[in-house]
Task: inverse folding
């Protein structure tokens, strides 16, 4: 009896997204490492916390694939991106990463619609909402650096921003607290 409830196409898309979320965690880890090395411990702390969020996203895909009777394939994770040139560039990279991820999620939503896989469509709605929050968060970061002076921000302005981010909540509900029943 066939117990796998995912089509080959949907499975491949979900599995690829699982790897993308792991890649996102690596990207945030590398950006956080860059920030810490440059002395921005607050920014680094913020980015490291976000790396954990991405890993939680990865786990949500992994668990969903298992729940639907398929076996996820754990693939190699692509390498992280190049170090940013400055804080503004770092926050640009965060925004670009999130928009790219939103595009990837939307593609699977569309696929689930075409295949009338309503379970997957429903599962993905948590991520559609999450991506709105993640894009908003990254836009807020861009606003903050803009106010601090952008690429011309002084050391003093960057230090203030760094301190602020150390204690800034992600403003996002933790993925670990969300379940399929209570997204
Ligand atoms: Fe998993 Fe930042 O999206």
Result:
């Amino acid at each position: 009896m066939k117990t796998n409830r995912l089509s080959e196409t949907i499975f491949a898309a979900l599995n690829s997204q699982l790897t993308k979320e792991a890649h996102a965690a690596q990207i945030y880890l590398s950006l956080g490492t860059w920030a810490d090395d440059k002395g921005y411990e607050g920014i680094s702390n913020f980015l490291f916390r976000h790396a954990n969020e991405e890993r939680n996203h990865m786990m949500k895909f992994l668990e969903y694939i298992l729940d639907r009777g398929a076996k996820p394939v754990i693939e190699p994770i692509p390498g992280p991106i190049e170090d940013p040139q400055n804080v503004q560039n770092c926050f640009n990279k965060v925004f670009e990463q999130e928009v790219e991820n939103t595009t990837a999620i939307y593609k699977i939503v569309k696929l689930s619609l075409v295949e009338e896989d309503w379970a997957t469509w429903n599962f993905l709605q948590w991520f559609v909402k999450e991506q709105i929050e993640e894009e908003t968060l990254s836009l807020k970061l861009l606003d903050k650096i803009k106010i601090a002076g952008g690429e011309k921000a002084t050391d003093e302005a960057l230090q203030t921003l760094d301190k602020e981010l150390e204690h800034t909540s992600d403003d996002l509900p933790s993925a670990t607290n969300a379940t399929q029943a209570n997204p």
